[in-house]
Specification:
Length: 336
């Protein structure tokens, strides 16, 4: 694939001096799973509220003109959006966009990985919270682990790399699998990232078979302690590692990363904006304020002023360490 010429570099900075060069685009709030930490309640709005392809492309073009260079497509579950391959191809062709990536639950990846790669997708993150089929089905409320593993194999064969596996760690649910999950990096060029549970719309009762709210959180420091039997050495982070702190098991092909939004705050390095599937710009994943861009899209008004306003509105941090809980949000609605 030939590289595109770069636009003149812009420094899109927020009021704290952080360079914003990354846009996460939720292409749908729909999902075919209902993971207990992501969609604990009723399913969110349906496709009637979603931006059209051309509207998404207008936002990405405007963002690219301001200095955004990387786009990640998220959901809900982005592979449920009709015409996803064409959307990827169109985003990849936008001048200034250097990377297009995808976050998925992996259920449809085996049949889509090759065509997405041909369209210009460069890498993929797959949610994988357990290697035990029964437990995986319980966490996801219906997910089939073999389909996800087939999707990983297809993504690897298609050259979607680096291939990252996102593991949300919940005490009393999957925290006894950390060693086994980290072991995936030995024989595969996969990058396993253990993520602290974030209190986003999931503080209620998940049901009798799940841990109580007060018992679920496992800090990164304790995750590291659980992996003490392994030799974890500091390692260079793979492309797009974001806030992960990265290590490698001795002799492993891939890496093990830890993402700690509460235990080791990383807001000082935040470089992203988020666009929700219904046309709202979110300066911060967890900040309650957002800015609707839908009216400007429908009226043909310029988008750059709204993007600049959203960047200027980025808070210094998310506030979780002060006890703030995002109980009015669901992760599936804001793109993770």
């Amino acid at each position: 694939m030939t590289s595109k010429p770069r636009l003149q570099d812009h420094n899109l900075r927020d009021t704290y001096g952080r360079v914003i060069d990354y846009l996460r685009v939720s292409v749908t709030s729909r999902c075919d799973l209902r993971c207990v930490y992501c969609t604990p309640g009723p399913r969110p709005r349906t496709a009637g509220d979603e931006l059209r392809d051309e509207e998404i492309l207008r936002v990405v073009r405007a963002a690219a003109r301001l200095g955004v260079r990387r786009v990640r497509l998220t959901g809900g579950e982005p592979t449920l959006r009709p015409g996803l391959t064409g959307l990827v191809e169109s985003i990849a062709a936008i001048e200034g966009i250097e990377e297009v990536s995808l976050t998925t639950n992996g259920l449809r990846l085996s049949g889509m990985a090759a065509e997405l790669r041909r369209a210009g997708l460069q890498r993929v993150n797959v949610s994988l919270d357990s290697l035990r089929p029964d437990r995986f089905r319980r966490i996801t409320r219906g997910g089939e682990l073999p389909r996800v593993l087939d999707g990983l194999a297809a993504a690897e064969a298609a050259g979607l790399a680096p291939l990252k596996l996102n593991v949300v760690v919940v005490r009393g649910l999957n925290d006894d699998e950390l060693v086994e999950l980290a072991g995936l990096t030995v024989e595969h060029l996969w990058h396993v990232r253990f993520i602290e549970l974030m209190p986003i719309g999931n503080q209620g009762d998940w049901g009798a078979e799940f841990p109580l709210p007060a018992d679920r959180f496992l800090p990164v420091q304790e995750m590291r302690h659980r992996l003490a039997e392994l030799t974890l050495e500091p390692a260079e982070a793979p492309s797009g590692a974001g806030p992960a702190r990265t290590f490698r098991l001795r002799g492993a092909q891939g890496t093990v990363g830890f993402i700690a939004p509460l235990g080791q705050r990383f807001c000082h390095a935040c470089n992203r904006l988020r666009l929700t599937s219904d046309g709202r710009l979110r300066p911060c994943l967890l900040a309650g304020a957002d800015l609707s861009i839908r009216g400007a899209l429908r009226s043909g008004a310029p988008l750059e002023p709204l993007l600049l306003r959203a960047v200027a509105a980025k808070p210094e941090g998310h506030g979780l360490h002060r006890g703030w809980l995002a109980n009015d949000l669901h992760m599936c609605e804001i793109g993770g």
